[in-house]
Write a structure and sequence with these properties.
36% helix, 5-stranded antiparallel beta sheet, globular, Ubiquitin Conjugating Enzyme, alpha+beta
């Protein structure tokens, strides 16, 4: 999972439905083809061409991309189909070739507002494949990534709240879970004197996309 990712806000196309998204995606990615519906997924396969700023080819990667039928409120699943990436947790890829490009909580926020396939590919695939090429060649300086499993979740909360103080993070989460409705004028869940709207309002909105049961389990990470 790559760290430092933000919500995708700059859409290159005003895509209104899956058919338009599919056409824009295939036009922009000549190595991909649409295989149709397979079980509960829209399936794309072929090659993703990683290019430099001039449009010259850096490397080609074989992939299968599965788009759940819940589109656009679903996060695509990407599999590597060649041997160019070492299948290891250090490269955020499973032994089966499933690539993890984002932390689940960030993905939840993205899909809550609707995530188009074109934007997913345009943003995440160049970022991931550039990152993995550098890391496989021993270049680690400046590379950002979420930690694995619980470590990554801790990092997400630390990033959201801009603190590594575990007691403060735990307090925020407990206060967030104690309310049934987010009130802009409520005292901030961090325990400070400011109103929520002037403090951590955006964090509270971000967490709405993740089930409270998951957040309840996370509290134990900060004991």
């Amino acid at each position: 999972m790559l760290a430092g990712t933000n919500l995708i806000s700059n859409r290159k196309f005003k895509i209104r439905n899956f058919e338009e998204d599919k056409i824009a995606t295939l036009k922009a990615n000549s190595g991909l083809r649409y295989d149709g519906k397979v079980n509960d997924f829209y399936r794309f396969s072929g090659n993703f061409f990683l290019k430099d700023d001039k449009g010259d080819l850096i490397e080609s990667f074989g992939i299968i991309l599965l788009l759940p039928k819940a589109y656009p409120n679903a996060f695509p699943i990407v599999f590597s189909t060649d041997e160019k990436i070492e299948k290891h947790d250090d490269f955020h890829i499973s032994k089966e070739g499933a690539i993890c490009v984002e932390h689940t909580y960030v993905a939840n926020e993205l899909i809550s507002g609707g995530l188009r396939l074109y934007d997913f590919i345009d943003y995440y695939l160049p970022k991931y494949f550039s990152w993995v090429l550098l890391k496989q060649n021993g270049v680690t300086e400046g590379l950002e990534e979420w930690g694995h499993q619980d470590n990554g979740t801790v990092q997400v909360y630390e990033t959201l709240l801009n603190t590594t103080n575990r007691k403060d993070i735990k307090k925020f989460l407990e206060n967030y879970l104690s309310v049934t409705k987010i009130g802009r004028n409520d005292r901030c869940y961090c325990g400070g004197d400011k109103k929520l709207k002037n403090c951590h309002y955006e964090v509270a909105l971000f967490l709405k996309s993740t089930p409270k049961k998951a957040i309840e389990k996370d509290i134990a990470l900060f004991d």
